[in-house]
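FAQ: What does the model actually see?

It sees only this:
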Amino acid sequence: MFSWSKTVFVRLAEQHRQFVKDLVMNLQALALVLERRGYLASCYTCGGQMNSASFMVSLGENHLIRFLVSDYGITWTEMRDDRELMKLEGAEAISQLQELANLVKNSIGPGFLDGPEMPETAGMRRVSGRGALTPVAIASPQHIS
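And it is asked to produce this:
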């Protein structure tokens, strides 16, 4: 008979809390970088424990990204003209956030997602009909400057 160790689940719970905390810190850093590049961006946390955050950024005229993280889940929502284009959860939401970080890392300023393609963003494209960003490369948001 298999016996469960109490410490396995305690360890997993602690790892999850640390993961959420790391994600919140990276969202705060991404919001700062976006603000410095001229975007309307914010990242709000609840309390000092860094166990949840609400991240929002306006990518142009009526184009909004909202990313929510907490102990209960992770959600990415992309909206245009007050209509929800896409909603992702969990790992898919984090992958989409990574794509945003990659685009920011390679951009030069506001409007880069809505304007004509610039040399810095060549090869980055939208998924036809969804308005979603497609993955190009994976890099840690911690390395955004």
